[in-house]
């Protein structure tokens, strides 16, 4: 699903900074891969490349069989919207919309017909265990539930890859465990999950770990 070959990212500066060098690893469908490493090591740079938010200066990145280096900006944007889902540390839910409304937002941007949106949003909210809170406003939900809404929003268009940046960083241990269980349930034969994390208990639940040190990403044994 993801295939990086000798991917590097150098920021021109001055001063010039090579934030990522020679990253070579793959992520298969059905896998959860954790990206770990010290602060400033290049994890965000790597995640930005994986998320098609940034372009490598060297190497090749294939996503879902597409050589992303050959794409024009508009094609990158379309591939990002259709193939990727993003989960961040903060849920970033919209306060004045209920759960269904929040999860429907990306479908508007994807041009999904209005009549299909509610059913898709409801399905995603059911998948994250919030089928009973469809009409709830975010301020009536717990932090863990809000993060579930964010995850439902990230999977509503059924992306092949879910990219998560510290998805449990704001949660207590109980909610962390249940969000991890949820992420495990969302990996399937045609979906991969990538999690950037500082938390060793999160990394322990992944199938594999990629460690980034000083811009060098190395896949660790399972
Ligand atoms: N736009 C940029 N221009 C110049 N240097 C940058 C830029 N973005 C990141 N860097 C540098 O690249 C290196 C890697 O940064 P990155 O944000 O990827 O690390 P990180 O592992 O995600 O850190 P943290 O865990 O603290 O978020 C750092 O030295 C950072 O200062």
From TrEMBL:
Q: What is this protein called?
A: ABC transporter domain-containing protein
Lineage, top-rank taxon, reads Bacteria
Q: Name one Pfam family in it.
A: ABC_tran
Q: Which residues belong to any copy of the ABC transporter domain? A: 2-222
Ordered alphabetically, the record's keywords are: ATP-binding, Nucleotide-binding, Transport
Cellular compartments per GO CC:
membrane protein complex; plasma membrane
Which molecular-function annotation in GO is an example for this chain?
ATP hydrolysis activity
Give the residue range of the signal peptide.
none
Among InterPro entries, the record links this protein to: AAA+_ATPase (IPR003593), ABC_transporter-like_ATP-bd (IPR003439), ABC_transporter-like_CS (IPR017871), ABC_transpr_LolD-like (IPR015854), MacB-like_ATP-bd (IPR017911), P-loop_NTPase (IPR027417)
């Amino acid at each position: 699903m993801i295939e990086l070959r000798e991917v590097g990212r150098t920021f021109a500066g001055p001063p010039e900074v090579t934030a990522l060098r020679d990253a070579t690893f793959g992520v298969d469908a059905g896998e959860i891969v954790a990206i770990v490493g010290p602060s400033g090591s290049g994890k965000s740079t790597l995640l930005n490349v994986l998320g098609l938010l940034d372009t490598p200066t060297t190497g090749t990145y294939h996503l879902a069989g597409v050589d992303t280096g050959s794409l024009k900006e508009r094609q990158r944007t379309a591939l990002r919207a259709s193939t990727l889902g993003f989960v961040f540390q903060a849920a970033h839910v919209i306060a004045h919309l209920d759960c269904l409304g929040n999860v429907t937002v990306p479908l508007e941007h994807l041009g999904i017909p209005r009549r299909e949106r509610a059913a898709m949003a409801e399905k995603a909210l059911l998948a994250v265990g919030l089928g009973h809170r469809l009409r709830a406003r975010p301020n009536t939900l717990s932090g863990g539930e809000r993060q579930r809404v964010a995850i439902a929003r990230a999977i509503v268009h059924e992306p092949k890859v879910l990219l998560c940046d510290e998805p449990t960083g704001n949660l207590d241990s109980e909610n962390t465990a249940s969000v991890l269980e949820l992420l495990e349930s969302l990996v399937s034969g045609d979906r991969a999950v990538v999690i950037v994390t500082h938390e060793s208990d999160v990394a322990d639940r992944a199938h594999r770990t990629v460690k980034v040190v000083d811009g060098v990403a190395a896949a660790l044994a399972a």
